[in-house]
Amino acid sequence: MNVAPETVVLAAFVAFCRIGGCFLIMPGFSSARVPVQVRLFIAVAATGALLVHLWDHIVPFIDRRPQVLAPMIVSELMIGGLIGGLARLYVLALHFIGAAIAMLIGYGGMGGTAIEENEPQAALASIISFSALLLLFVFDFHHEIVKALVTSYEVAPLNTLFNPRAALVDVTDTLSESFLLVLRLGSPFVAYAILVNLTIGFVNKLVPQIPIYFISLPFVIAGGLIIFYFAIGVMISLFADGFVATTIGR
Which residues cross the membrane (predicted)? Predict the structure, then answer.
């Protein structure tokens, strides 16, 4: 089939809108540590690699009329952003529980360098976030994102515009399941913090003359780090296992 050069260019651009929109938001590639030019080159390279496989899903729907092309571009950007955003919400939930764990064991005051964001982050939260992100890449989670992008052309073809209602359902379900998962992962530290603080409070009431808080703080941190040592492997493993089912596997 002979295809006009303008159609090829428009097909590549429309494909880039969905694929690039996803790659520019998904965790890892959207990190503040990755320059914008590198993200753009990765998105362009992924678009070029996938365009051949998606040719039959894109070219038949290309229409050069502005009133058709403009809504299609906006829709493709929203769909790609949704796929990448669901994965990012899952990782942000881990950032939340990482900061909470650091605060619960008294280690929140120790600042560290954030991996994903520009804002400073507790050192313990940075370790958790970086370990989880590294494990996701080791387990080829970015391949799952690419598979989801390819499959999305069957679920949401080009002639079907972005459905905000279905997107909101996906976002709320992902948020709910992600935060329930990370709360389960952080539950040992929540229980530890409750028991330790209750004990310290009772001791402080019994002996108000002694500054129990300052004396107990090193022991609280040490106990929390011991629990962290034994729990971090299971935490990261369960987090990686739930990625596909919670985000793009629905």
Answer: 7-26, 38-56, 68-86, 92-110, 122-139, 179-200, 212-240
